[in-house]
């Protein structure tokens, strides 16, 4: 088998939109190039995977889902323990599912701990598909070690690392748990380089930025700018941390009846539109919207600054007001602001007056528009989906087993 012939590629991920969605177009492209792609995923995402042409390999997971974000707990150890617990019980399921049909190449989301273990067992290359920020040279000393110091000194933390190391050793791997995922041999980074802190210190022989892999999203539906709408604002806090009725009411107060502006307000599944009161004619409210279709026509975007929303805003050249909710969103908000295309507005400060002032200031600033267009063009040059597929194909073994 040469590297460009039909191959069997196995992809591994978890049941979370923020981890599955970035890979979808890459998988679709690999299938279109003639490869057979098996995609290991819990049942809730099987139909979405099947729509790409890949074959879902369904496994049972114990991880909390997007529908229950509070189940992740509040402490750092609460956030990482579930991944190890899930990996230990998932590994036998996946080993059995692929027995006799082992792939030529493993690709995997960074949350899939079983994937590099299986690649080692099968003696095949592994490539990480990285949907968020990557470590730079010095990251461990500057960020990871201070962040994890108390955890590693705690009883619970020591037990976690002991269990992780025992699991890896039992599978013939001597890599430290902290490096199993964070220091891969090869990674395709599915975010634009513009969002990456200390980008000049990232080892690009390992981490290759390909920017947005968005596709046309035609299956998500279209959206038409209403007649007479001079400006369009999209408001979305993503899919997980959306139980924010007070915030949505502030948006209605800020932009309801604002001359020339039309507002699309996505409120997610945890808030009833009736909680927002009577809505002005210039505001439409939905549980879900075709975000990219709207952003292609929008003049401003109020976002939680998740990795997906941030790069969609950059890819469409849309000025953003970042109101982060959790995890990496705070860092993304700061990066967007430093690029000169966004304002970081903490949730506690997101009053109607502050939201309106931030949106009007951004949308009326020609320098913001210039910077947004410059970044949009730079992102487009990173190659997107086709480059990601090229990089993955380059890792295929030159000759079959």
Number of strands: 13
Would you identify the regions where 5 or more consecutive residues have pLDDT less than 50? none
**Biggest sheet: strands side by side, in what order?**
3-2-1-4-5-6-7
> Quaternary state, please?
single chain
Radius of gyration: 22 Å
For the residues shown, what is the average pLDDT? 92
**In percent terms, what proportion of residues is strand?**
5-15%
Give the H and E element order.
EHEHEHEHEHHHEEEHEEHEHEHEHHH
Secondary structural class: alpha/beta
- What's the helical proportion of residues? 40-55%
End-to-end Cα distance: 9 Å
Query: What best-fitting shape do the alpha-carbon axes yield?
Result: globular
H/I helix tally: 14
Could you characterize what this model shows?
This protein is an alpha/beta fold and about 400 residues long. The protein contains 14 helices and 13 strands. A seven-stranded parallel sheet has the order 3-2-1-4-5-6-7. A six-stranded parallel sheet has the order 10-9-8-11-12-13, sandwiched between helices.
Chain-wise SSE layout:
Layout: E1 8-12, H1 17-32, E2 36-41, H2 46-50, E3 55-58, H3 76-98, E4 105-109, H4 114-122, E5 126-130, H5 139-153, H6 155-170, H7 177-182, E6 187-189, E7 207-209, E8 231-236, H8 245-255, E9 261-266, E10 283-286, H9 291-295, E11 300-303, H10 307-315, E12 320-322, H11 329-338, E13 342-344, H12 352-363, H13 366-380, H14 384-394
Parallel strand pairs: 1-2, 1-4, 2-3, 4-5, 5-6, 6-7, 8-9, 8-11, 9-10, 11-12, 12-13
Helix pairs in contact: 1-14, 3-4, 3-6, 5-6, 8-12
Short structural summary:
The protein is of the alpha/beta class and 401 residues long. The chain has helices at 17-32, 46-50, 76-98, 114-122, 139-153, 155-170, 177-182, 245-255, 291-295, 307-315, 329-338, 352-363, 366-380, 384-394; strands at 8-12, 36-41, 55-58, 105-109, 126-130, 187-189, 207-209, 231-236, 261-266, 283-286, 300-303, 320-322, 342-344.
């Amino acid at each position: 088998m040469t590297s460009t012939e039909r191959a069997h590629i196995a992809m591994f991920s978890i049941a979370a939109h923020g981890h599955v969605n970035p890979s979808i177009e890459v998988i679709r492209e690999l299938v279109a190039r003639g490869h057979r792609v098996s995609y290991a995923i819990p049942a809730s995402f099987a139909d979405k995977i099947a729509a790409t042409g890949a074959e879902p390999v369904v496994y049972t997971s114990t991880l909390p889902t997007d529908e229950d974000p509070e189940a992740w707990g509040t402490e750092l150890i609460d956030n990482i323990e579930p991944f190890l617990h899930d990996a230990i019980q998932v590994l036998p399921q996946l080993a059995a599912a692929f027995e006799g049909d082992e792939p030529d190449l493993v690709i995997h989301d960074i949350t899939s701990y079983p994937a590099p273990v299986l690649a080692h067992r099968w003696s095949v290359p592994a490539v990480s598909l990285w949907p968020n920020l990557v470590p730079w040279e010095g990251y461990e000393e500057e960020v990871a070690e201070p962040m994890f110091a108390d955890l590693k000194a705690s009883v619970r933390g020591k037990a976690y690392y002991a269990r992780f190391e025992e699991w890896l050793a039992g599978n013939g791997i001597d890599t430290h748990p902290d490096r199993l995922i964070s220091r891969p041999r090869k990674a395709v980074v599915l975010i634009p380089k513009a969002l990456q802190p200390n980008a000049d210190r990232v080892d690009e022989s390992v981490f290759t930025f390909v920017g947005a892999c968005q596709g046309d999203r035609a299956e998500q539906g279209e959206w038409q700018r209403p007649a007479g709408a001079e400006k369009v604002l999209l408001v979305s806090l993503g899919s997980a941390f959306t139980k924010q009725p007070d915030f949505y009411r502030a948006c209605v107060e800020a932009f309801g009846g604002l001359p020339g502006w039309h507002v699309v307000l996505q409120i997610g599944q945890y808030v009833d539109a009736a909680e927002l009161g009577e809505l002005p004619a210039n505001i439409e409210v939905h549980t879900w919207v075709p975000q990219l279709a709207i952003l292609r026509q929008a003049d401003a975007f109020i976002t939680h600054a998740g990795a997906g929303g941030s790069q969609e805003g950059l890819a469409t050249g849309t000025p953003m007001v970042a109101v982060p909710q959790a995890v990496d969103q705070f860092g993304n908000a700061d990066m967007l602001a430093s690029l000169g295309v966004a304002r970081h507005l903490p949730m506690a400060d997101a009053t109607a007056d502050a939201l309106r002032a931030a949106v009007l200031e951004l949308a009326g600033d020609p320098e913001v528009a210039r910077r947004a267009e410059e970044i949009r063009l730079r992102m487009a040059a990173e190659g997107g989906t086709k480059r990601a597929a090229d990089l993955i194909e380059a890792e295929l073994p030159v000759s079959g087993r």
